[in-house]
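Lay summary. Proteins are chains of building blocks that fold into shapes, and those shapes determine what they do. In this project we predict the shape from the chain. Here is one chain we studied, written as its sequence of building blocks.
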Amino acid sequence: MAQTTLLERRTKSFEQRMNRLKQMEASLNVQRRKQRTRRLIELGGLVVKANLDDWPSNMLLGAFLSLKEEARNQNQVNSWTYEGRLRFAADTRKNTRVHVTFPSFPEGELLKDLKLLGLTWNAMEHIWVGRGDVQELKALLEPQGGLVREAGATD
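And here is the predicted shape, written in a compact code that computers can read:
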């Protein structure tokens, strides 16, 4: 009789563990589904941000497939990454006022990039001014010789 009770307790304990495992698995599935949904929403947001939301689905899919082919070229990928970082850094919704200085007046692509970022030249103070994410702008412009600081900040 004692063995039956022991066996019943172990069976019950095993069933409880199995139920907990099933609950954890269900919770993981919910988390995965939420992550996937969040990613799909982000991707849709990128389509809108790139002003491609009026393109037909067939056209978008074809463009994406073409991009996948071009992604084999690392120089192209680097160019896309840089351009995307510029566009995100230029997003003024949550950015602060910044001042950017260079040892000499920028020319060529760098000048074009500064304008794309929405920065304007202040001839009186000899600085570029605008709005942006300070850390992102530092990552983009310091390798080009730029000094990025929050407006009003002193060194």
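What the prediction tells us: The radius of gyration is 27 Å.
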